[in-house]
Design goal:
The complex is a heterodimer.
Chain A: H1 8-27, H2 33-60, H3 63-84, H4 93-118, H5 126-157, H6 159-167, H7 172-175, H8 177-197, H9 205-212, H10 217-249
Helix pairs in contact in A: 1-2, 3-4, 3-5, 4-5, 4-10, 5-8, 5-10, 8-10, 9-10
Chain B: E1 2-9, E2 12-19, E3 24-28, H1 35-42, E4 49-54, E5 57-58, H2 64-70, E6 71-74, H3 92-101, H4 118-130, E7 136-140, H5 148-163, E8 167-171, H6 175-181, E9 185-189, E10 192-195
């Protein structure tokens, strides 16, 4: 690997592009310059902090600190899932369901990748654990929140159709099947589409990063395939468990539809 | 046949009554009196308390779906989950003969649900339930959108069904319909029940 290192001057000179964009916004009275500059400043601060945290973690190689960081990442992603829901479940289920499913899916898939394919030494080496988990989490989070969103919106919209089947004596699984199917379809469509289009439309960010960092294209490609498999597995596992958990919560043992459990 | 003891749920005072085999009980009352809430509770579609037995079997001894196959609710606004009419019936061939009785043509099976009139929806929803042969039918204004002829057809169909030993609880806004169907009607007001003077 022979990455070309960037120095501070390179970064400052590149940031001229953002300053130019802000100047254009000002000149054309687009009113975007403030948001643009704040977002840029946030990016600089956040990435610098993440860089420092990762540097420390990579130096420590501690299972505890790595585990704690991973847990915090999951909890933040759970917050993000909750925030994206238009209709939330009442009580602790609102945050609990999505977070628990993500914890399950992302940790299973990450540990699988670490112990079966990537096999760093030690297996929890944060240099591998945290980036892998980050990529899996980001996609699983989108899958779960799309799935839950589609499920709850669909049940509220098609309440009469779902209850019509219940009234005729069908079970909750039968009556909610169309809602479950469309929820899982919208949860899994992004990863299916991105697998189908990858390489043709755009090079995946991670692969580009590895190539820029000096990796052989075929080595980067293999890594990208691994990541895609992990993301597909994590998203499917997370979305299915979250959607079925949502069905479980929004119906009861008497096979009634319980939309009163939505806020 | 159907014995209801102290049935209650939010919006409803505890109610007790019995329905005998072959009996059609009518229920009248102003909108918001809790008629639909009562029917939903009887079909166990919302959480409710009270003891209900059907032919001596307690509701709690059956699963929700088993109970609703026996005690079937047909709401005023029917729900449809597939595109074509026929997909809502277990066996469309079986529906053929009954279609004529409710003044609908055989081709109705291929009609898209989205183009049904409210009267057609009501008759098809009733038929869809009847063909599953429940013991008790809970009808929520099944003739509200129908003209005189279609109303008479529906009343005839339900009368025949009663003769097979089933029972019906019929919610109606029309006192004349209540008199036609049954001399023993009930009147419901703000969640309470009383025998109606017909």
């Amino acid at each position: 690997m022979n990455a070309i290192p960037l120095d501070a001057f390179d970064i400052v000179s590149a940031s001229v592009l953002v300053l130019l964009s802000a100047a254009l916004s000002l000149a054309l009275q687009l009113g975007l310059q403030r948001q643009l500059l704040i977002a840029t400043a946030r990016m600089i601060v956040q990435l610098t902090l993440v860089g420092l945290v990762l540097k420390t973690l990579f130096a420590l190689v501690s299972p505890w600190w790595t585990g704690l960081t991973a847990l915090l990442m999951v909890l933040f992603a759970g917050q993000e899932i909750t925030a994206r829901q238009e209709r939330r479940l009442k009580g602790p289920w609102s945050y609990g369901l999505g977070t628990a499913c993500m914890l399950l899916a992302a940790s299973l898939v990450t540990v699988f990748a670490l112990t079966a394919q990537v096999r760093p030494d030690p297996w929890y080496d944060p240099r591998y654990t945290l980036p892998l988990l980050g990529m899996i989490l980001g996609n699983t989070m989108t899958g779960i929140s799309l799935g839950l969103q589609t499920l709850t919106n669909g049940l509220v919209r098609d309440r009469a159709a779902v209850e019509a089947q219940l009234m005729l004596g069908e079970t909750r699984w039968q009556a909610l099947r169309p809602a479950v199917r469309s929820a899982l379809r919208s949860a899994l469509m992004p990863i299916i589409n991105s697998m189908a289009a990858t390489g043709l439309v755009a090079l995946p960010g991670m692969m580009t990063g590895q190539i820029l960092a000096g990796a052989e294209p075929m080595a980067a490609v293999k890594y990208q395939m691994l990541i895609m498999f992990l993301i597909a597995g994590g998203t499917t596992l997370g979305a299915i468990s979250a959607v079925l958990g949502g069905v479980w919560r929004l119906t009861d043992a008497r096979h009634r539809l319980r939309l009163d459990r939505l806020r | 046949m159907l014995i209801v003891h102290e049935l209650c749920r939010p919006g409803l005072s505890p109610l007790s009554f019995q329905l005998e085999r072959g009996e059609c009980m009518t229920l009248q009352g102003p909108s918001g009196a809790g008629k639909s809430l009562l029917l939903r509770a009887l079909a166990d579609l919302d959480p409710n308390q009270g003891e209900i037995t059907l032919d001596g079997r307690r509701r709690t001894a059956m699963t929700g779906p088993d109970w609703r196959r026996q005690v079937m609710y047909v709401p005023a606004e029917s729900g449809w989950w597939a595109e074509r009419v026929r997909d809502h019936f277990l066996d469309w061939a079986e529906a053929g003969a009954e279609l004529e009785r409710v003044r609908l043509p055989k081709e109705a099976g291929d009609w898209p649900v989205s183009r049904l009139s409210s009267g057609e929806r009501q008759r098809l929803a009733l038929l869809r339930a009847l063909l599953r042969q429940p013991r008790v039918l809970l009808l929520d204004e099944p003739t509200a959108a129908l003209d005189g002829e279609a109303t008479a057809a529906v009343e005839g169909l339900v009368s025949d069904y009663l003769r097979t030993g089933a029972a019906v609880l019929w919610v109606t806004h029309d006192p004349r319909q209540a008199r036609r169907l049954n001399p023993r009607g009930f009147f419901m007001e703000s969640g309470r029940f009383r025998e109606a003077p017909l």
